[in-house]
Specification:
Layout: E1 3-5, E2 12-14, E3 16-19, H1 28-40, E4 45-47, H2 55-64, E5 71-76, H3 82-95, E6 103-109, H4 112-119, H5 124-133, E7 140-144, H6 147-156, E8 161-165, H7 168-174, H8 178-186, E9 190-194, E10 198-201, E11 215-217, H9 222-234, E12 239-241, H10 246-258, H11 267-278
Parallel strand pairs: 3-4, 3-12, 4-5, 5-6, 6-7, 7-8, 8-9, 9-12
Antiparallel strand pairs: 1-2, 10-11
Length: 289
């Protein structure tokens, strides 16, 4: 496993992070094995949210043994009130069997309304700041899926981390990601990439192979998957969260272990990836609603 500093947090995090949504609806025994496998592979950043079904309930017991050696990132919805967020946070801590979050984030800020609600007096950010002052949260971040939202959030508050799609399709075809990285690094914010192994939106009536992600993961084209992962990790990011399916966790680790110099993308590899992008036959974003 490779490690990088998560920006100014000073945390050494694995370049592959654990997407907690993959534990939604799995059995306790399966979750124990999945988490053990991830930790054994060197993964030390685990991300989860109350909106991920019962993932918190399952992750808590599975991760408890390893809690002191890993970094735990939680989330809350941006359109909630201060009191609602406080309730979210306290319930998450209880379910996850811990007394603090290494990182707590505004989750999926997608529109102007939720952004303004999060930043307003009595809103979500106020609750997170209070929790940080009490030691329940060590660092504050956000996730967003479009540059305008990420840039506006960074202009509004000095977050410690940014979670954003750093994805080959989104970057090359929709020009999303470069400005976010540049702005974040101006103040040494940590950058958590998502959607590294995403291809595009599912087509209507396409066979989904029991994947429950809203996008088609890169499970059926190993060359493109290798290039996509190298693309994300070769950008100025600190870690990349796995897609929400345990099969993609194992695949991510397999790809990382098999790649020669996985943190660098050669000009020849970029040319091959651009060729895929030119015939990508579908956008990744916007998220289907």
């Amino acid at each position: 496993m490779y490690y990088r500093k998560l920006g100014r947090t000073g945390l050494d995090v694995s370049v592959i992070a654990f997407g907690g949504i993959m534990l939604d609806s799995v059995s306790r025994d399966s979750a124990d094995h999945i988490v053990e496998r991830a930790v054994s592979a060197g993964i030390n950043l685990f991300d989860v949210s109350p909106t991920y079904g019962n993932a918190q309930n399952i992750m808590g017991p599975a991760l408890e043994t390893y809690r002191d050696g890993v970094f735990l990132a939680g989330k809350t919805e941006p359109n909630q009130t201060r009191d609602e967020v406080r309730g979210d946070l306290e319930n998450s801590l209880k379910l996850l069997r811990t007394d603090y979050f290494d990182l707590y984030q505004l989750h999926e800020v997608t529109n102007e309304s939720s952004l303004q609600q999060a930043l307003a007096p009595g809103g979500a950010l106020e609750a997170i700041i209070e929790a940080r002052d009490e030691g329940l949260v060590h660092h504050i971040g956000f996730s967003a899926h479009s540059e305008w939202a990420a840039l506006k959030l960074m202009d509004s508050f000095d977050f410690d981390t940014v979670m954003f799609p750093i994805n080959w399709n989104y970057w090359l075809n929709q020009s999303q990601g470069k400005q976010v990285i540049a702005r974040a690094r101006e103040t040494d914010k940590g950058i958590i990439a998502i959607k590294a192994l995403a291809h595009r939106q599912w087509r209507k009536d396409e066979e989904k192979q029991n994947y429950h992600t809203w996008y088609k993961p890169l499970f059926d084209n190993k060359e493109l998957a290798e290039l996509a992962l190298k693309f994300t990790l070769s950008r100025d990011v600190d870690t990349a969260v796995t897609p929400g399916d345990v099969r993609m966790l194992d695949y991510s680790l397999e790809l990382l272990n098999n790649l020669v110099d996985p943190l660098q993308l050669s000009e020849e590899e970029l040319k091959r990836l651009k060729k895929y992008a030119s015939g990508h036959d579908g956008k990744l974003y916007p998220i289907p609603r």
